[in-house]
Amino acid sequence: MTTKNKPLLFLLLIPALMIGVVLMVAIFRREDSTAPLTAERFRQEWDTLQGNRYTIRAQIDRQIGSSAEVGRILAVRMLDSTGRLPVLVPADKQQNFEAGQRYEFHVVVRGDILLVENADKF
Amino acid sequence: METKTTKAHILITVFSVLSALAIPLAAQKAPTPFGTPVAGKSAPAPTPAAQPAPAPAPATGGTAGDYSSGTAERGMDKIFDVNKDSVDLENGTMNWKGKTFNLGNSRVIRARIERYLSSPKPEDDIVAHAKILQQIEDLLSPKVLTAKNYSENYQKAWELLFKAAKYEIDAESCLTIATLVDKTVRTKQQVRGLRLSKNEQEVLRRRQSRDVIIQARTLEEKKDRAALRATGKKGQPAADVSEGSEELAHRRETLGRTDAEIRKTDTAITAIETKAKLEFQSQIFMFLLQRRFKHVTIATAFYRYTFGSSEQQLRVGDRQIKEMFPVSNFVPTMDSLDMLAREALKDVETSMRTVEQLCDTGGRYKALERLQEAFFLGEYTPKVMFFDPEKKAPLMKLWRHVQDLQRIGDERDLAGVEEVLQKISAVADDFPVAVVRSRANNARRMSNLSVLAAKQAALGGDLARAEQNVERAAKFWPSNPMLEEFANMAVARAEGVAQKIPEFDRLEKDGKTREIYTRKEEFAMVLFQDKERSEKLRIIIERALRINGMLEQAKLLKKQGNPFMAWDVLHEAAKLGPEDTEVLKAHSDFAATAAEYARCLDNAERQEAMGNFSASLAWYLSAGDMNPTSELCQRGIKRTGEALLNNARTKLAQ
């Protein structure tokens, strides 16, 4: 390989590396996240999503009800799609939820209930 | 004492004769016994001017001719309550100056006014007659009469009476006056003759009385002389003292007869004079009652002439006249009659002026009212007779419409009122249309309410009350269509009790409540004695009424551009009557405008019914986003939220 051919090699390598990085990111994201859950999808297909976990970014609309043993039911407005969904925050989650706050909820579908496993405020 | 009794007896006789004469007098047709005085030809007419002691010519005043005196007229205004003047066609009466005059049969007087309103321009005869009457009145007017022309004017006026009597419109009233005047003149001649013979009798009486006194004195002296002779010359035979006594007795008897003759003549004079006055006054009073006021004034003027101003006291109808002048100590005279007649004529003229003015300004209804009053008071007065036929034509139209309205009112045909009112409004702006319309509406409403009350009573089984209310409804409005409907229902009930009950049961079982509601009246009539079914019917009707209200509300909301709220209302209605055909129809009508919202609510309810409260909640939230003010959604959210909390532990444990 001559010194004269080195720039050409770099020119070919750089796009190949970029493509490789993009593919890696795509593969990584696919393996690491759940499919997006919309309000409409939940309402229509909740019984086919049993056991699935989702992360939903939402703003707290209001608290619909609460129970010391069960927890609280919150109506949250989806930020990445339209509509509202009810989520159940178990009683052991010692967090304060107030209307207007934004959270990233990690939920699992149990029956027709969206059970909150984690909620990260943002 | 004896004389008084005789006079009273004569007066009574005269009154009874007069009462018998009253009608024939009015109808008397034959002219005077002294030929037939034709106008222009002076037949051997009675010459009133030649009569003794005529009334002094009232050229400038005096009781008899004081027409210009304002005192009487001012008194009239105070005495009479003119506000009471009115015509009552129903009773055929007319109230004038607080006194009611009977006009006769109401149908006849209606015909009379209709004939008057539809009559064309008055014929020439009427004009000519009115002119002659005016001429007579002018001749007898105190403004014209002087001491010089007094007798001459009366003579001319008397002759004109025969001319006036020829016209049909006069009904020979003037002839009656002329006859009375003639008769009175003759009576006066007769009285004069009696007075002359009475004078002669009194001369004779005086002579007879003197003779009796002389005879008595002679007889007395004779007795004295005989007594003296008997005491001085005893043994001489006594002279015969009874000589001359018989003659004295005869003379006394003759004197008594003459006295009786004089009294008889006196009585005859009084009776003849009284009779003449009564006849004249009766006729004048009759003219007044017939409302021939011109004849009253003319006859009164002749009365004044024939009897003089000192003989003015009213003997006939004084009680009636007194009633018209409610003043204590009032003494009715012939002038009272004259004054009344003139007042009536003045009233008629005023009324006719008002009529003319109202016609010109468009107040035709008021004009018609005033014209009726003027007509009935002064039917025979020129002002009324000459009223412009062109102005009468619309009044005639109005009169007929008003008569129609009255007939409708009598028959209580309330449905026809509006049509007639519109016709009346087109002719007369001033007719109180609003008042009549309001009364008709009130009567209609009362009738309808009574029918409803009757229906209710029938439903409750209170047939007596139902009947009472039907009677009441018919009283207000006999042709009320609701009454017919009610009657049909009653008939239907009688016919269909047997078949309606099973039909009701079947419809109720099939959930066809709307059909039951539609036929509620017929079922109500049938089931009112069946408590169980009546209660079911009541519930169905109440529910249907509520549903109807909701449907109306939903339609309104939809119209206002709020289809989701409309759907909520429909949703509630559907809960009340899921099988109600009207609700189902509305659902399908509304579905297109609120399809997505309806889908959300349907899903929410379905999931809730399946126990999937979280899914149901999600659907309610979605519906709530579309219709944030929906109470239905809010209730659903609250309800499913609570249910979710209650069931979450079980569900999560699965």
Query: How far is it from the N-terminal to the C-terminal residue of chain B, by CA?
Result: 141 Å
Percent in strands of chain A: 35-45%
Helix-strand topology string of chain A: HHEEEEE
Give the overall shape of chain A, derived from the CA principal axes: elongated
CATH superfamily of the largest domain in chain A: Nucleic acid-binding proteins
Helical element count of chain A? Answer: 2
Report the largest inter-chain contact: A-B, 24 and 24 residues
Structural class designation of chain B: mainly alpha
Q: Strand arrangement, largest sheet of chain A? A: 3-2-1-4-5
Q: Portion of residues in helices of chain B?
A: over 70%
Number of strands of chain A: 5
Averaged pLDDT of chain A, please? 84
Q: Explain this structure to me?
A:
The complex is a heterodimer of chains A (122) and B (654). Chain A has 122 residues and is α+β, with helices and mostly antiparallel strands. Chain A folds into two domains: 3-32; 39-121, Nucleic acid-binding proteins (OB fold (Dihydrolipoamide Acetyltransferase, E2P)), CATH 2.40.50. Chain A has two helices and five strands; from the N terminus they run H-H-E-E-E-E-E. Chain A has a five-stranded antiparallel beta sheet with strand order 3-2-1-4-5, with no helix packed on it. The longest helix of chain A has 27 residues, at 6-32. Chain A is elongated and about 75 Å long. The mean pLDDT of chain A is 84. Chain B is built from 25 helices and three strands. The longest helix of chain B has 60 residues, at 173-232. The model of chain B is unreliable at 1-85 (pLDDT under 50). Helix content of chain B is 73%, strand content 2%. Chain B has a domain at 2-60 and 121-191 and 277-311. Chain B has a three-stranded antiparallel beta sheet, covered by helices on one side. Chain B has 654 residues and is mostly helical. The radius of gyration of chain B is 49 Å and the shape is elongated. The chains are: A alpha+beta (122), B mainly alpha (654). The interface between A and B is medium-sized, with 24 and 24 residues.
